[in-house]
Design brief:
This protein has 51 residues and is mainly alpha-helical. Helix content is 69%, strand content 0%. It has a domain of 34 residues. The radius of gyration is 18 Å and the shape is rod-shaped. The termini are far apart.
Length: 51
Amino acid sequence: MYAALWRLLPGPLWVRIVCAVAIVALVLLILVLWVFPWVNSFISVPEVTVQ
């Protein structure tokens, strides 16, 4: 799967690396800003105190 994605990226090696890093950064940004907070609203964390 990753080989197919790598072949779809345009340009020489250095352009592919820059594009791959940008895509990974964008995916992580989307996860942190929208997906994780949305999932967190469905998870109930119990109040736990240590005595």
